[in-house]
Amino acid sequence: MKQIKFYIIGLIIAGLSIMSVSLQSKLHDATTQVEYLQGEVQYKQAEVNHLADAIEFGNAQHQLLVADRNRLALMRIEADQERERLRQELQATRNQINELRQSDNEQVQMWANTTVPGDACRLLKWSECADGLPDGDSDRSGLHGPAAGLNAALLTNRAF
User: Fold this and answer.
1) Residue 126 domain boundaries
2) d(CA 21, CA 44)
């Protein structure tokens, strides 16, 4: 009977040892899984931080684009107003020219029929001969193309 008690105690100890090893294995597996999940949490947190930064950058870009759009809208309004002002000024100038064409004043008619002197025409043509210069500015005045309108006005016959 004592032997049976030793066998039973031995079996109980062996069972407890086997159960202890099994529990240690399960504990190790659970610990490994917890560490893996902590790594996943850190990775997902890094992803969330990256996406939050991307959203913040996108919002900043959006604000810049909205500001640019508003500035361009204002510039367009100003350009439209300037174009309308210039159109009205052109119309007023055309009206003045039409009045001068119909003038009975002899001085105005003499001025209208006077031709531009040849020297002035040659000088104006010289300013147009800037083919060799990269910017087309023969006298380096820094003004591009204003002489073209002046040349056309001076070279036309002023006969009304």
Assistant:
1) 115-160
2) 34
Per-residue pLDDT of the chain (160 residues; tens, 9 = 90+): 778 888 888 888 888 888 988 999 999 999 999 999 999 999 999 999 999 999 999 999 999 999 999 999 999 999 999 999 999 999 998 888 778 778 788 887 777 667 767 777 777 676 655 444 444 444 444 444 544 444 445 545 544 4
Residue 112, judged by CB atoms within 10 A of its CB (0-12, 13-18, 19+), counts as: middle
Residue 152: inside a domain: yes
How many domains does one find in the chain? 1
pTM: 0.44
